[in-house]
Specification:
By secondary structure, this protein is of the alpha/beta class. The chain has helices at residues 6-10, 28-34, 39-60, 79-102, 118-130, 146-162, 173-177, 225-236; strands spanning 20-24, 64-71, 105-110, 136-144, 190-193, 212-215. The protein has eight helices and six strands.
């Protein structure tokens, strides 16, 4: 049964509900330090917030939730934190596999998978295969960078051109987009960033060309249903012309 969603009472206009919401889940470390805990405790609390967020998206009619879980730059963090995050990803997959299948949520990961521990990469692939037929989607950006994605797309196109499969003059936006990590996904309609920072931080650079942005001072582990509803209400007020006439 669908839970009560305040935003759903605001408007019955489905065009005002984003199909794809992306989140820069910022503030886990600060949340933990403010409570005298290690940063990894904040990341664990962030996983709980992610699970809540997925439920809210399903209630509101949002079909795709993409979250910035671990960037290409995050590998520079202390080894203890990086190792803890890799274990946290593995634990999430192990504990949530049954729930994702029961709730018919498609699980996907975008990013440079070759950077990941082989056992984690294998677990990701297995869960993706088990959930591939579901419509609702949860996408984790892991070892992900927007610039890295564009570089990887360019490398694929260069290889295709070198082999004669395409001509350089055939390369257009559609062809570049087809070489991104998940070309079948719609571009994000709304990107939410928590913790008060107001920058993109190398997230979905190709895909966010016409995304709407919503910034909040709330730290990610504290992000609430009311905060999500406020983001949706703000999105519903936007006039998304995408470069068209006023």
């Amino acid at each position: 049964m669908v839970n009560y969603c305040p935003f759903m009472k605001m408007s019955d206009d489905k065009s005002k509900i984003p199909t794809h919401v992306a989140v820069i889940m910022d503030g886990n470390g600060r949340w933990a330090l403010a409570r005298g805990k290690k940063r990894l405790a904040g990341h664990r609390a962030g996983v709980d917030a992610l699970e809540r967020m997925l439920g809210w998206c399903k209630d509101a009619g949002v079909k795709v939730l993409t979250v910035y879980a671990f960037s290409t730059e995050n590998w520079k963090r202390p080894a203890e934190e990086v190792e803890g995050l890799m274990k946290l990803f593995s634990t999430f997959i192990r504990l949530k596999t049954r729930k994702l299948i029961c709730e018919r949520v498609r699980f996907r990961v975008i990013g440079r998978r070759d950077d990941l521990p082989p056992t984690l990469a294998a677990s990701i692939a297995r869960l993706e295969e088990k959930t591939a037929s579901f419509e609702q989607q949860l996408v984790l950006a892991v070892s992900y960078g927007g610039r890295a994605e564009i570089v990887d797309a360019a490398r694929k196109l260069a290889a295709d051109a070198a082999s004669g499969r395409i001509r350089p003059d055939e390369i257009d936006e559609a062809l570049v987009g087809s070489r991104t990590y998940a070309p079948d996904l719609p571009d994000p309609d709304l990107i939410i960033r928590t913790s008060g920072e107001q920058r993109v931080s190398n997230f979905l650079l190709w895909e966010c060309a016409y995304s709407e942005f919503y910034f909040t001072d709330v730290l990610w582990p504290d992000f609430s249903r009311a905060d999500f509803d406020a983001a949706l209400a703000s999105y519903a007020e936007r006039d998304r012309r995408k470069g068209g006439h006023a």
